[in-house]
Amino acid sequence: MDLNTIADVRDARRHEPWRPGDAWLGGGTYLFSEPQPHLRRLVDLSRMGWEPLTRHEDGSLEIAATCTVAQLSRFGRRFLDAPAAPLFEQCCRAFLASFKIWNMATVGGNLCNGLPAGPLISLAAALDGTCLLRAQDGSLREVKVVDFITGAGVKDLAEGELLRSVTLPGRALECRTAFRQASLYGLGRSGALVVGTLDPVDGSLAVTVSAATVRPFRFWFPLPPDADRLRTAIDTAVAPAEWFDDIHGLPEWRRHMGLRLAEEVRRELATSHGPEEGSR
């Protein structure tokens, strides 16, 4: 789609004062998908030269905001030697997108849109990711992905602030994972997406519920809980208004599927771990 209000596109390598009507341009798959009448100038990140994926000495993985879905998928399938590697492809496949979108859409764009069905939000939240944010004055701050998304399309992002990267801790990458996703349609947008991670070091279990809710919810247990404790934790934390409501699923259905998939994830990982908490 042509954006007929855009008067200028500038290279992000040239720092200029941020002004009303500016927007960061990553892959552009969202920006050019619908009218943006409030925008006047795009700040293009495509020439920043950021390494898409970097594995650090401590085992953590830094994912640049400009990393594309295709690059993330390929890295998870071919180069990431870690138990959590299959989760990368599972979340990428949860996209309602063609290969053309995969080669342009970015990790940063998916997070900064903040849509409940954003599967890279689900991936980063489930693996305890941390966002690195850079303000216009160059100052940096970090915020957990589960705290970065505060509602449907609502983010903890100041005017002109840039998401530079997301870092996944090495310990999270060593977790065994379980993935469940549901949609009203065979190739439809996610109505519920649940990821479980089992820590091999201390036996703790985390269950992350997203897509069904307006923002990701991550529940951590020192040992795998029983079914009742998991259900109670979810129902206590997620208010009725926080079950998402749109054409892709009513809140009642999303709650039902979120609870059902969470129990499936819990059972899969708890069975592999041994006796559940409360049954010893």
TrEMBL record:
Pfam families for this protein: FAD_binding_5
MF terms in GO: FAD binding; oxidoreductase activity
InterPro entries per UniProt: Diverse_Substr_Oxidored (IPR051312), FAD-bd_PCMH (IPR016166), FAD-bd_PCMH-like_sf (IPR036318), FAD-bd_PCMH_sub2 (IPR016169), Mopterin_DH_FAD-bd (IPR002346)
PROSITE patterns: FAD_PCMH (PS51387)
Membrane-crossing residue ranges in chain numbering: none
Residue span, FAD-binding PCMH-type domain: 1-173
Protein name as annotated: FAD-binding molybdopterin dehydrogenase
